Amino acid sequence: MNKRLWILVAAVVLLGAVGVVGKKQGWWGATGDQLEVETVTIQVHTIVETVNASGKIQPAVDVKISPEVSGEIIALPVVEGQAVKKGQLLAKINPDIYQSMLGRAEAALNMARSGKAQAQAQFLEATQSYKRSQTLKLQNVISQAEWDAAERMYAVAELAVESAEFQLQSAFNSVKEAKDNLKRTVITAPMDGIVTGLNVEVGERVVGTAQMAGTEMMRVSQLETMEVLVDVNENDIVRVHMGDTAIVRVDAFLGHDFKAVVTEISNAAKGQQLSVNQVTNFEVELRILAESYADLVETQGVQPLRSGMTATVDIRTQKAPNALCVPVEAVTTRMDSVSGKMHEVLFVYQEGAAVQYRAETGIQDEEFIVLKNFDSMESAQVIRGPFDAVSRKLEDGDLVTVKEPVKK
Q1: Is-contact 281 53, C-beta < 8 A?
Q2: Is the pLDDT of residue 378 over 80?
Q3: CATH 2.40.420.20 fits 32-47+323-402, yes or no
Q4: What is the structure's pLDDT at 64?
Q5: pTM here?
Q6: Sign of CA dihedral 23, 24, 30, 35
Q7: How far apart are CA 247 and CA 316, in angstroms?
Q8: CA 218, CA 195: separation in Å to the nearest integer?
């Protein structure tokens, strides 16, 4: 009885072992448990790597007009969108108070002139008295005390002339400042351009000083050259370089691509970062090439781009012509059993199994990624999906079946 039992157990174990081996080798029952995958042949493409960002259209030259003096606007002969020439009147501030200040400064200047003349006359008198006392002193006619008094009077008179000169110079400067302030009540265009962002009206009071920016009254912009200011993520900014070309798409002109060139890259992050969890962005300026919208100018008769328009930008950072590449989703990561580090890998379909290969990748676009170490495997069938199989389920040597493409 015991012998039969042992024989039965041995038979069950043997059958189980054969079943496992047979299933592993694909002799039977394998299809139901094998992963069904999608494959694609390694292809040759020209890959252009891009950095995507969004921002606003703005003029390349945009001058803020702020007053240097405070007061009430009494004249505003321009309107939004008006073309102006350099030196043309933009606004005028009530000059009454500054005319009064100029009058007081000129009066103070006249007083300083009179004060200097008086000091010079007193100095002349003191000089003559000093010379007489000097002669009498040599003749021992006056006492030492009288001689000391004469010297003091001379020195005081000399200092009075010097002080009067300083006061006169100060009065001159006050008059000059008053004249300058009076001139500043008349605000003119600093260059040829278009009035944009008109923020004030006649009768409003504006604040202005020579030391700091005052009320922004308007802007004068040169719309012949436009640019787009975008925010680029810190992970992408290292790939952007001066002179990189870009395609700009503006919401207002769907289907029209504008060409641009990177002209400025900020070295400091935008704004003050309050938390390490905040997204860090860097500002990048791109000049939009006029020839890319010359057809719109011809059609519309005016500059089509306007300050503040929303734009998306694809900055072309690198290009790999005729490169071996696979779909982006075919490349995943696995941990190296020796180093314990994560590496990029892909799985190649070979004789019914998924064979894992270390992948050395290059640049990528939205669809494909360049392979650097597959020159001898141009016709290889790379597993590209399903996503969960490639990203986590597949292991080196797993048996797989290729999913038949859906016929359309």
Answers
A1: no
A2: no
A3: yes
A4: 92
A5: 0.65
A6: positive
A7: 8
A8: 7
pLDDT score recorded for residue 276: 60
Distance between CA atoms of 353 and 356, rounded to whole angstroms? 10
Torsion, CA 122, CA 125, CA 126, CA 129, rounded to 10 = -160
Q: Is 97's pLDDT higher than 60?
A: yes
Question: In whole angstroms, what is the distance from residue 194 CA to residue 376 CA?
Answer: 61
| φ, ψ for residue 392, nearest 5 deg | -145, -30
Of residues 398, 314, 308, the one with CA closest to residue 52: 314
Measure the CA–CA gap between 355 and 383, rounded to whole angstroms. 10
- Domain spans in the chain, listed from the N-terminal domain onward: 32-47+323-402, 52-60+226-319, 67-94+185-216, 95-182
**Quick one: average pLDDT of 399-406?**
75
Element (H, E) at 346: strand 342-350
Q: Give the CA distances from residue 375 to residues 97, 297, 359, 367, in Å, rounded to whole numbers and listed in that order.
A: 82, 49, 12, 20
Does 408 have pLDDT greater than 50? no
**Which superfamily is assigned to 52-60+226-319 in CATH?**
Efflux pump adaptor protein, beta barrel domain (2.40.30.170)
- CA dihedral 178→183→185→186, nearest 10 degrees, is 180
Reported CATH class of domain 67-94+185-216: mainly beta
